[in-house]
DNA sequence: CCATGCGCTGAC
DNA sequence: GTCAGCGCATGG
């Protein structure tokens, strides 16, 4: 908050719901925008997590996992063709991919795959839009939310607020599958669901990554307006998550959706605890500024 | 080849 | 603010 105080997100939301209008610590007034769109203080989340994990589990190096960047060393703008310059960026070619990962590469993008900067893609790094995000390999499809192959697995997902059944709790979230929508009329998206989703194609790719335990890269977009964990602008790489389970459920629009629960891989949580968080929706390791 | 897709833009 | 509708990349 402007006064510099931080609160647990759940507590803050409860406070606002009860009619709180000032900081519980210093009574400074809370701006309206902060009331309706509180944002997570990622630096504080990282610090608290770091402090909590006293012993370093083998295979997880916190110094790497929490290597945040502050938008310096930004790459060039996404490449656009001459034709796209006339027609607008929506019609642009995606441009050069700067990293050397294969499209079906699972897991982080390391320094050895980043000949341009030799540092890899860092957790917390962000880009202007999906085309630029694609150029750095974090999430390659520039429209689709799920990257993957139905017989191999899913490499990454994007949280962009495109499906209202999504639920973002920071270190874990529920992600709705693709499909179920009428895209006739040359549409790329459609807010209305008109038939059931199935575990096929990209949804099936997620299910395979779940079964195999593959790491999934996660990016969050500013277009997700309901989440306090979404960036205020651009597209941000939020690191590696793993899939706890996939199932079908009734969506809010009256048709079935393929739901997936992902959790932050650096949490090292036993599956039971994630389930507990899903059902109890207790306090999370969530702080805001 | 054809179908899908959680973007993006200018126009209103 | 809302909206239609486009190229492109990818999977199948």
TrEMBL record:
Record's catalysed reaction(s): S-ubiquitinyl-[E2 ubiquitin-conjugating enzyme]-L-cysteine + [acceptor protein]-L-lysine = [E2 ubiquitin-conjugating enzyme]-L-cysteine + N(6)-ubiquitinyl-[acceptor protein]-L-lysine
Any one Pfam family match given in the protein's UniProt record, by short name: zf-C3HC4
PROSITE patterns per the UniProt record, alphabetical: YDG (PS51015), ZF_RING_2 (PS50089)
The YDG domain, residue ranges: 116-264
Chief subcellular location: nucleus
Domain RING-type, chain residue ranges per copy: 1-27
Cellular location(s): Nucleus
Gene Ontology CC annotation, any one: nucleus
Membrane-spanning residues: none
Domain of life: Eukaryota
Keywords: Chromatin regulator, DNA-binding, Metal-binding, Nucleus, Transferase, Zinc, Zinc-finger
EC number(s) on file: 2.3.2.27
UniProt-listed InterPro entries: PUA-like_sf, SRA-YDG_sf, SRA_YDG, UHRF1/2-like, Znf_C3HC4_RING-type, Znf_RING, Znf_RING/FYVE/PHD
GO biological process entries: negative regulation of gene expression via chromosomal CpG island methylation; protein ubiquitination
GO MF term (any one): ubiquitin protein ligase activity
PANTHER family reported in the protein's UniProt record: E3 UBIQUITIN-PROTEIN LIGASE UHRF-RELATED (PTHR14140), OS04G0289800 PROTEIN (PTHR14140:SF27)
Protein name as it appears in the record: RING-type E3 ubiquitin transferase
Species, as recorded: Acorus calamus
Gene (UniProt): ORTH2
């Amino acid at each position: 908050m402007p006064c510099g105080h931080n609160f647990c997100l759940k507590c803050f939301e409860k406070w606002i719901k009860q009619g709180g209008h000032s900081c519980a610590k210093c009574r400074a007034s809370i701006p309206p925008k902060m009331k309706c769109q509180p944002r997570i203080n990622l630096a504080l989340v990282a610090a608290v997590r770091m402090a909590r994990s006293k012993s370093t589990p083998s295979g997880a190096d916190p110094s790497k996992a929490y290597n945040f960047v502050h938008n310096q060393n930004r790459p060039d703008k996404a490449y656009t063709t001459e034709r796209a310059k006339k027609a607008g960026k929506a019609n642009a070619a995606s441009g050069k991919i700067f990293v050397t990962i294969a499209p079906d590469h699972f897991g982080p993008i390391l320094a050895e795959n980043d000949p341009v900067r030799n540092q890899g893609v860092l957790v917390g790094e962000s880009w202007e839009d999906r085309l630029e995000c694609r150029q750095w390999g974090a999430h390659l499809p520039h429209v689709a939310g799920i990257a993957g192959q139905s017989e191999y697995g899913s490499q990454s997902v994007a949280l962009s607020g495109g499906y209202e059944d999504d639920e973002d709790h920071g270190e874990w979230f529920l992600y709705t599958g693709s499909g179920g929508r009428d895209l006739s009329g040359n549409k790329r998206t459609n807010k209305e669901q008109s038939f059931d989703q199935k575990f096929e194609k990209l949804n099936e790719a997620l299910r395979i990554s779940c079964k195999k335990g593959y790491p999934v890269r996660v990016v969050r977009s500013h277009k997700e307006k309901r989440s306090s964990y979404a960036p205020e602008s651009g597209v941000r790489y939020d690191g590696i998550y793993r899939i706890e389970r996939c199932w079908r459920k009734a969506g809010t629009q009256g048709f079935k959706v393929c739901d997936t629960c992902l959790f932050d891989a650096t949490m090292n949580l036993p599956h039971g605890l994630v389930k507990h968080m899903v059902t109890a929706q207790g306090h999370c390791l969530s702080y805001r500024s």
